[in-house]
Amino acid sequence: MSFLTSLENRIKQNFNIWDLAMIKWVGILFGLLVGAYYADFIKNNTTILVAILLLIGFWLAFKMLKKIKIINSN
């Protein structure tokens, strides 16, 4: 876990908001291309992929709420 924390800290120090926005757009476009190329795979495994996306979303929301709680408690 310390590797991920150090990686996150390096990203925060070296990237600005425009860099992070560009990474998001690249991810979206990559996902569209992969989804178009492997359409049958995506259609057959939609529930699994949605479950994975929900888990990632809940993990990020938990992380955000934990960070807000730590900031507000100080």
Describe the protein's topology.
Blueprint: H1 2-14, H2 17-37, H3 39-44, H4 46-73
Keywords: Membrane, Transmembrane, Transmembrane helix
Protein name: AtpZ/AtpI family protein
Transmembrane segments: 21-39, 45-62
What does this structure look like?
The chain is mostly helical and 74 residues long. It has two domains: 1-37, no CATH class; 45-74. Helix content is 92%, strand content 0%. The chain is built from four helices and no strands. The chain has helices at 2-14, 17-37, 39-44, 46-73. It starts with a helix and ends with a helix.
**Strand proportion:** under 5%
Number of helices: 4
Q: What percentage of residues falls in helices of 4 or more residues?
A: over 70%
Largest sheet: none
Write down the secondary-structure element order.
HHHH
Rg value: 16 Å
Which consecutive residue ranges, at least 5 long each, have pLDDT under 50?
none
Organism: Polaribacter ponticola
Protein name: AtpZ/AtpI family protein
Transmembrane segments: 21-39, 45-62
Keywords: Membrane, Transmembrane, Transmembrane helix
Short structural summary:
The protein has 74 residues and is mainly α.
Keywords, separated by commas or semicolons:
extended; about 70 residues; mainly alpha; about 90% helix
